[in-house]
Amino acid sequence: MKQNKQQGNLTGKMKKPLNKRLIRELKGDIGKYIVIFILLVFSIGFVSGFLVAGESMIQAYDESFEKYTIEDGNFRTEEKISDSKKERIEKKGVSIFENFYVEKEFDNDTKLRLFANREEVDKVCVMEGRLPEELREIAIDRMYADNNELSVGDTLVSEGESYEIVGLVALSDYSALFYSNNDMMFDASAFGVAVVSSKQFAEYPEGKIRYNYAWLYDKKPVTEEEKKEASDDLMEALTGIVTLENFVPGYLNQAITFTGEDLGGDKAMVEVLLYIIIIIIAFVFGVTINNTIHKEATVIGTLRASGYTINELIRHYMAMPLIVTVIAAILGNILGYTYFKNVCVDLYYGSYSLPTYVTVWSAEAFFKTTVIPMLIMLVITYFVLRKKLQLSPLKLIKRDLSGKKPKSAIPLSKRIRFFDRFRIRILIQNKSSYIILFMGLLFANMLLFFGMMLPPLLMHYQGIVTETMLAKHTYMLQIPAGAIDSDDELSASISYVFLLNKISTNNPTAEKFSAYGLKTIGEGGNRIEDVNLYGIKEDSKFIHATFDDKTVLVSSAYADKYGLKKGDVITLKEPYEDKYYGFKVTGIYNYDGGIAVFMSKKHLNELMGLDEEVFSGYFSDTEITDIEEKYLGTIVDEESLTRVTRQLMISMGKMMYMVDAFSVVMFIVLIYLLSKLIIEKNVQSISMAKILGYTGKEVAALYIVPTAIVVVASLLISYPVLSFVMVGIFRVMLKQMMSGWMVIWLDPSVYIKMFAMGMITYAVVAVIEYGKIGKIPMSEALKNVE
Amino acid sequence: MQLELQNIKKSYGEGGNRIEVLKDSSLGVEKGEFVVLLGPSGSGKSTLLNIIGGIDTADSGKIIIREKSMADMDEKMLTSYRREHLGYIFQMYNLIPNLTVRENIEVGAYLSKKPLDIDEIIDVLGLTEHQNKIPSQLSGGQQQRCSIGRAIIKNPDILLCDEPTGALDYNTSKEILALIERVNREYGNTVIMVTHNDAIKNMADFVVKLRDGVIRKSYRNETKQTARELDW
Lengths: 786, 232
Description:
The complex is a heterodimer of chains A (786) and B (232).
Chain A: H1 2-28, H2 30-67, E1 73-77, H3 83-90, E2 94-98, E3 101-105, E4 111-116, E5 124-129, E6 137-141, H4 142-147, E7 155-158, E8 161-171, E9 191-196, H5 198-203, E10 211-217, H6 224-241, E11 244-249, H7 254-263, H8 265-305, H9 310-351, H10 363-389, H11 393-397, H12 418-429, H13 431-467, E12 473-477, H14 481-484, H15 489-500, E13 511-520, E14 530-536, E15 553-555, H16 556-562, E16 569-573, E17 580-584, E18 587-589, E19 596-600, H17 601-607, E20 617-620, E21 632-636, H18 638-641, H19 643-681, H20 683-692, H21 696-703, H22 705-737, H23 748-775
Parallel strand pairs in A: 4-9, 6-8, 14-19, 15-18
Antiparallel strand pairs in A: 1-10, 1-11, 2-10, 3-4, 5-8, 6-9, 7-8, 12-20, 12-21, 13-14, 13-16, 13-20, 15-19, 16-17
Helix pairs in contact in A: 2-8, 2-9, 2-10, 2-19, 8-9, 8-10, 8-13, 8-19, 9-10, 9-19, 12-22, 13-19, 13-22, 19-23, 21-23, 22-23
Chain B: E1 3-12, E2 19-29, E3 34-38, H1 45-52, E4 60-65, E5 68-69, H2 75-85, E6 86-89, H3 101-109, H4 118-124, H5 140-152, E7 158-162, H6 170-187, E8 190-195, E9 206-211, E10 214-220
Parallel strand pairs in B: 3-8, 3-9, 6-7, 7-8
Antiparallel strand pairs in B: 1-2, 1-4, 4-5, 9-10
Helix pairs in contact in B: 3-5, 5-6
């Protein structure tokens, strides 16, 4: 027993000297550890912050449904609903609440939808200040305020009336500030929501008030099908009681659901990014460890021969990478919960008008940013070490590390210049490092590509969308649903004739068109989206195509998004009915502004069972001023078409800069680490070359140029690969993110910028490496270690 | 005189740890001579060789090579001195591990404006059939022959050999010594060889014995033996 104990003590003491090396190893290679550490801390910190922020936001969003009693849907009627009608509606299993609003243009060229404070449903979250109580007081949406640089105490002016901003709020039913549910994207700089006091709201003239009602089901439907059924039933019931102007069930309301769909969306992508970074770093460690083992083979062999077990040595060599990862993970998590969480919350608040949140401790975030990276590091380093250390002590002492017969050299033609052959040998010698460098650069470039390509893509889209606009102004008339949606065609026609007077214009440039909104059927997991069918009159000034009775042209955006070509059949359905339409595409019309189908007016009207004369809007070169605003629905002009790009720029702009910065850091770290490694591996040879009389320049030409070649080649190869991959990713991303379509365009000048950035980064590292080569003493070669 | 060392002093370390490695050593070497620096470990022979080779510097004293003082040479001039005039052979070969035998020799050839014919050298070294192998595929003797090839291909004025047979067995050592002897004879290079093997002094024209950093004895060898005749 006693002897055993003594032995134990002895082994304990024996291990200590080895552990002391760790500090020395750290000091000796501080540069490498610092850059890896920083990269890890930032990656883990950002992802941790992102996940924590995301989870806190999701929680805030999910809880908001109950906390603020978010509606199950809303509809708008032409007139205020009488009590008796309200009673009839509520018998259908819903409670309805007035949620009236007026819309006002303000002097800062923005539009606000003003509600009276809601007390029962769609309650308001006050983010700063207070709710309005008096006349001329207003509480505006927080994000709209941010985008327009407004704060509490400022004033907003509309039609000569000034409002004092007394609070910044989030409206629970407007977490994404969609003006209309048909919009492709919201634009929180040009449109916002706000609340005023009941006193103030009462001041607005009746003609200006939009009679919007929110409903809550008495018994909430749960599944998507139930929700659909419930809302379909309700709509059917409503059309019999009131004249609907708008009907949006909550589950289809983009202003409510868009945020929720998007909040979880980036999570998987960010996690994958983290794991790729960790794997790359683990491989960097792997190559480093490999190098160390090569360097210390005789020592390791001697230790093994004197009784150290493989596992003891594996633990020893694994310690440093793991310690670095653990400390980085801890610090990363601290930064994640403090600094990066706020950065990411700002990103969310920059895109969505979310209510206040509480930071939640996320076990998932901890697991994903700490446990998984540790495991990845552990597994990769363990296997690298295991493979090398399994060699017999004798082989290690003899430095025979290949495990197999010595590999023979790849024959190279003598005709290749000596220096070039030398470099090729270095490339071959360091192929594993260079493969990691290539993969790392590919990855860093992917981030950079993403960050740098998106803004020009958006700008380009903005350009072409305005170029291919159907008309300078496209007006959709807002025709009360009952007028044409009646089962009785005769009465529909009569009310239509009655309306005709009010919706006629004297504008000479105006051209009538008919339009009909259908929806895609969402085949293949695509999101269901609106398709505008345009009925074009003969010899149109605006749509340059000839139409016969069978002509069905799809917009180029439609064709691009769904890969449609001539001869394909598209199936569309009525939004609120089980009625399907099939169209055979006869051509593609160059229009990138939306998902649209063009046919002759006669054809469309016939199809929809409408009179040939019925029309639903105007194309016009100039603004139409002689139609009452209440009859004008969606107006498509340059401003509305470019809304999507503006919002994306706002919500993704910050993220893009962060992505750019991060990828540049990745670039530097990888190039620095791997070229450092390659030089370290060849210290002996470099030293010998110096003894032989090679100048510093010549040595650099031999040992730096191969890395330069790999960097240049990696960059050049990465562009076509990434263009292909990223177009795919952009397509999937945009398909998921938006209704409508954005033509994907890659700006050629970005390639040049990216290449320049890559080269400048490399040049910086090369200068550092050049200095390092200069410092390698000639005595290295005299150390008598081969 | 091709090379002259006057009152060379060299010490390492500072304060109490200061060790004088070379204490006032002087030496003169004629062109084409085969010089052996003989001494036990720590006698300062390798330090002296490194100072001659310009990869270490003397604390004081004068080194004159082809009538030029090394003290007047900056780093750049030292590099070109090594490049143009010196060949180096080490105990541990110091071959570049990822280059073939031929390429390792080319590393030397590149440095010379008028290198010797590489195929001839490879043939002389007996490496023809191994020329496309990398160092790890070779025996110690073959590696050393390769490093000799790298040193002599540029036909240097002075060939510096630091214990070239230190890691080799008896027969291989003799073979390597014979090779160096042949190079000295056929190409006329001055050879300065550091060794602790007393027997090797017998093949030298000029023997310098060192101990504790001091040249104890130096003399011209009148009864020169060939490498083949050596025995230890």
